[in-house]
Amino acid sequence: MATDWRPTASIDTLRERARLLARVRGFFAERNVLEVETPVLGHGGSTDVHLASLSLAATTPAGRERLWLQTSPEFHMKRLLAAGSGPIFQLARSFRDGEVGSRHNIEFTMLEWYRPGFSLDELIEETAALILALLARAPGPLRRRRYRELFREMLGLDPFGIELDELRRVAGEHGDLDMQGEPRDGCLDLLMSLVIEPELGREGLDVVVDYPASQAALARRHRDPEDGAWVASRFEIYAQGLELANGYDELTDADEQRRRFAEDNAARHRLGLPEVDVDQRLLAAIEHGMPAGCGVALGLDRLIQLALKRQSVAEVMAFATPNC
Amino acid sequence: MANYSTNEFKGGLKVMLDGDPCSIVENELVKPGKGQAFSRVKLRNLITGRVWERTFKSGESLEGADVMDLEMEYLYSDGDMWHFMKTDGSFEQYAVEKKALGDTAKWLKEQVAYTVTLWNDNAISVTPPNFIELEVVETDPGLKGDTAQGGSKPATLSSGAVVRVPLFINQGEVLKIDTRSGEYVSRA
């Protein structure tokens, strides 16, 4: 069989893609958000237990060093914020090992932006405006959905209150697999992926808020007004069952951030996953003082896929990983 | 056999599931952006032909299945078993049970090559070629001058299959049939 050298996106699709990229830049130019470019390589990587970072060995002025390919441009961009950049955005190549499928590609384009002084609500509004600017047709109304309410509505259970054994049973039943010994968040993730996600964004944009505190990552936490349970100050936007964007009210407490990185690495150790070098420069920047505000990361390939009505991200990328 | 982990699952990989050999049809990664990954896998049970959808935790593994697809020519049936011979020049023969033969029974013709799927060296299924040429052994007489118009009638073929054919087809003619849809394609 002849070697398949052809692009996974047609040339016409790439023209459409270029037009949409220009629109993204126009959107931020109008709002006086500065475009920046930061390195894809860093001395620290993402410790997130569920992200597999790629690393490589490079010869630098310091000798032979291990450098990490970013899973998102978050760390470098936060260092710019701490240095007084003001609002910034970036179209950043990001890398996540093992993630290949109709909605994943190991190397992909993350559209990430930061808004010092913005509330989470203001950023939700701006993210929805960006999505609408790219989709040819308005997808319908924007609905705010609380994480907890979604589980109550679609599964009849309170994700925060339910006993772990019961949660494992329900998750195992829905996925038809054995969830004994699985952590709480793993069970919630399975139910989110299999039961809730496919129903999200069917008639518009669904914004999920108030995630479990354990899923805060680099976001602040706040009290749920209902019963005072801690929740993550985080949102995700879904359209047509596709997760498009993930936003945080950014954590600006260096000690808390250091503790979360250490917890991640401890969890990695327990699970037999490789530990990741903690980004000390990011911690130093937060220590110096990062302005309070919000930031969001949006999977641009997925948004382009929706805008152009394609079935997979590969169809809007010049060369998807299997063909690169 | 080797074990395969979820990140090695790809279309066509043969694995054991619930004691039956299966072929992976599709493997889709599902994962909330910041959450745990799972694999949503479609597998075809190679014995029943049924497609199963299963979810696996990332990193779970399945045992590989010793499954091979071989090209074999159909020889004859002794009533209990159907006999095929490898086309690689070895003259090695395999006997196939009625259950494994399944629907292919109605597309059998001597000296035609079929794909025989072996599991642990036993035949578990037989796939006919996409197109096969078979003789009409019984049908209503052909209608002259009816070549342009539509309309069809049943015809019994030499293999026993009954297919819809155009009205102008006569007994004794050899037809090209698509075995996947069971439809008439043309005169051979």
Automatic annotation (TrEMBL), chain B:
Return the protein name: Elongation factor P
Native source organism of the sequence: Billgrantia montanilacus
Tell me the domain of life.
Bacteria
Q: Which GO terms describe its biological process?
A: peptide biosynthetic process
Record has Ribonucleoprotein as a keyword? no
Reported function: Involved in peptide bond synthesis. Alleviates ribosome stalling that occurs when 3 or more consecutive Pro residues or the sequence PPG is present in a protein, possibly by augmenting the peptidyl transferase activity of the ribosome. Modification of Lys-34 is required for alleviation.
GO MF terms here are: translation elongation factor activity
Q: Which residues carry this modification: N6-(3,6-diaminohexanoyl)-5-hydroxylysine?
A: K34
Question: Sorted alphabetically, which HAMAP family does this protein's record hold?
Answer: EF_P
Q: Where is the Translation elongation factor P/YeiP central domain?
A: 69-124
Which residues does the UniProt record annotate as the domain Elongation factor P C-terminal? 132-187
Q: In which pathway does it act?
A: Protein biosynthesis; polypeptide chain elongation
Q: Carries keyword Protein biosynthesis?
A: yes
Q: Which gene encodes it?
A: efp
- Modifications made to the protein after synthesis: May be beta-lysylated on the epsilon-amino group of Lys-34 by the combined action of EpmA and EpmB, and then hydroxylated on the C5 position of the same residue by EpmC (if this protein is present). Lysylation is critical for the stimulatory effect of EF-P on peptide-bond formation. The lysylation moiety may extend toward the peptidyltransferase center and stabilize the terminal 3-CCA end of the tRNA. Hydroxylation of the C5 position on Lys-34 may allow additional potential stabilizing hydrogen-bond interactions with the P-tRNA.
